[in-house]
Design brief:
12 strands
């Protein structure tokens, strides 16, 4: 295995300067989305690593957020921003399209496989049919989200790891 430098994102200072990074995503248009922890809006870079702009707006109003936990490439060239209590969807032209509220138990972690149809949720869901099963396949295209299957065992150590992209939790 050999390393090869593909692109350098940002500059040492100025509007494209990078600090701590939670997640980097290259979208279908070849742009790089960079999500940092805390109250920050995602930064967008072109395929050569040149800073283009910040996306979204901090605040409490419609389409606004307090921070972004992750970013996903969605169907139809859309981008999803996980904002703690749901997903904000932007189109390819970076226009806000809609919000999808997602309420999870405070201790829940989940791994997105294919938004919004397939995610693995690691949570203690206290219903008779889900008790003792820590992992759940969830379809978020339904409101409320639909659990398609639950599996695993509490004593078998079956939990989603907290990765470099950090597990997503409701704030």
């Amino acid at each position: 295995i050999s390393e090869e430098l593909s692109v350098i994102l940002g500059t040492p200072d100025g509007p494209g300067a990078l600090g701590e990074v939670n997640r980097v995503l290259m979208d279908r248009q070849g742009r790089f989305w960079v999500v940092s922890p805390g109250p920050e809006t995602p930064m967008l870079f072109n395929e050569d690593g040149v800073f283009l702009q910040r996306v979204g707006k901090l605040g409490e109003g419609p389409g606004e957020f307090r921070g972004v936990l992750s970013v996903w490439d969605l169907p139809a060239d859309s981008i999803g921003l996980w904002v703690g209590n749901g997903v904000h969807v932007y189109n390819a032209d970076l226009q806000f399209v809609r919000s999808m509220r997602v309420v999870l138990p405070a201790s829940a972690r989940f791994l997105l496989l294919e938004w919004p149809r397939l995610a693995v949720l690691n949570a203690d869901i206290r219903t008779p049919e889900r008790a003792g099963l820590p992992l759940h396949l969830v379809d978020f295209s339904y409101l409320p989200p639909r659990i398609n299957r639950s599996f695993g065992s509490q004593d078998g150590g079956m939990q989603l790891p907290i990765s470099g992209a950090r597990a997503m939790r409701q704030v």
